[in-house]
Structure formats: structure tokens, C-alpha cells
Amino acid sequence: MSHKTTLILEGGAMRGLYSAGVLDVFLKNDINVDSIYAVSAGALFGLNYKSRQIGRALRYNLKYVNNKNYMGFYSLITTGNIMNKDFCFNKLVYDLDRLDFETYQNTPVDFYAVVTNLKTGKPEYIKIDDAKKDIEYFRASGSMPFVSKPVEINGNLYLDGGISDPVPFKHVLETQPEKIIVVLTRPAGYRKKNAHSKALYKLFYSKFPNFVKTGTNRYKTYNETMDLIEKYEAENKIIVLRPSEFIKIKRIEKDTNKLQKIYDLGTSDCTNKLDEIKKYLKG
């Protein structure tokens, strides 16, 4: 399906709060898109754009990031998941800081969460119209390898979409939208190094050779995508938002000051580019 305007959200665990800042500026300034392709933390934080809940992603992270039952080592050793399933996808969304499921469902934005199929090693782009019914796809998209159990949905096993398609720019190009906005969580010029060896992937995922191959080549996929994005950006065909400064932040960052800082950077970078974004969307 072709969309007029598509938004792409990179993952990056707590760096995703940069994107949350960008999206809150979008909501406050009536910047609308027709579809969103979101990966990992991009999906988990980005869903608040479709539910129209300004400030929610920042709010619950500042409040609960140091709660041992939210995410971190305690959750990993007690549940096998760095993100606590019951806390994050039950208590949080239904009680502690409720997700507005009704608004999510009624907002006319097609939301696709990217997941990686362990058997095939390939990305799948799951259209999520009902966040309540399909919340497990959000969990799968954000389930980081090595520190998360695979998420089983309809007989398939899934993990982090960032393994197979960390920034789904090529896929979005195939859908032929008129406009594309890309929100990255790394500064300009960033490229991945081969951080995880094939031996490590084999150690954890020996039953899934396709996933091992995909994980081992993840850095190449990412870097090739960045090259392509920068080419389109230089030709003024797309809008790219990315951190204008480097903020050292851990994937599971517990320092609330850093979380606030990366969010604030997202809001300021987006605000500074607002006129350019509006002109591009009208153009």
C-alpha cells in the first residue's frame, strides 16, 4: 500500500527517548503522517504518537526506570527478559500509565512494528491496528537478543526487529510514499562496528542458522542503510532528524538526568527543524 507520508523510527533502547521528544513536538504542532514503520524502542515509544499521548514515554520512564521490576539485571535473572513482561506490558499499559488503546485504534495512521523471525532470519512488518490485541508484537520488536526470550506469536518465534532491519528505509521506498521522514537515534556519520561475533550468535541461537547469519551481518545492513539515507538526504528527497550532539547513554540507562537530556534534545532538534519539515510536507 502506498502512503502519502511515511515516518520511520529507529530503535536504540533508551536512546529512543530522542524520538519520543521529536514525536511530542509533532503532536503539539499538528505534524501528521499516514504511516509509521517503527523498530524496537521506536515502536515501543512511537505508539504514543498514534495514541496521541504527549509526554507519556518520558513520564513513565522517569518514574519507573529505577524500579527493579521494570527492566534491568533483576528482571533478567528472575524472568529471563531484560524487560519485565508483566510490568511493561500489563501493569504499565493497563494501570500505572495507561495506554489509550481506543485513541490508538481510532487514529488514522497505519502503524507497522518491525520484528525478526528467528526461523527465517528475515524482518516482518506487522501492521498493528489494535494495540491491545497485538501487544505481543510490540514486545517482540523490542526484545533484544541475548537478554530476552524469543516471543512466540501464532507459532512463530520473534526477536528485536533491529537485528534484521534496524532502519527500514529500503522497505519503505518499496511502498512508494510521496514523503519520508526518518528519525534516527545516532548522530550524523555514525556507523556500526561488528560488535557481536558469529560465535556468540551461534552460542545462543544454534537452532536458528538464518538468524545467526542475519545477526552477524547486522552491522553491514545498518551501514548500507545509512549510506542510502544520507544519499537521499543530500538530494533533498527526505527529511532526517538525528541527535545534533552526542549524549553518552546506555541501552538500559538508569540516570534520569540523561533520559531527560536525550528527550529534550529530540524536542529542540525537531523544533529547530519545524519550518523545514512543514515546508517539505507541503511541497
Explain this structure to me?
This protein is α/β, with parallel strands linked by helices and 283 residues long. The chain contains 13 helices and 8 strands. Strands 1, 2, 3, 4, 5, 6, 7 and 8 form an 8-stranded mixed β-sheet that branches. Helix 1 packs parallel to helix 2 (41-50), helix 1 (17-28) crosses helix 12 (256-272) and helix 9 packs antiparallel against helix 10 (209-216).
Descriptors for this entry?
alpha/beta; 8-stranded mixed beta sheet; 283 residues; 46% helix
Brief synopsis:
The protein has helices at 17-28, 41-50, 56-64, 73-79, 85-96, 101-106, 135-141, 169-175, 198-205, 209-216, 218-234, 256-272, 274-282, and strands at 5-9, 35-39, 110-117, 123-127, 151-153, 156-160, 179-183, 239-241. It is an alpha/beta fold. The mean pLDDT is 96.
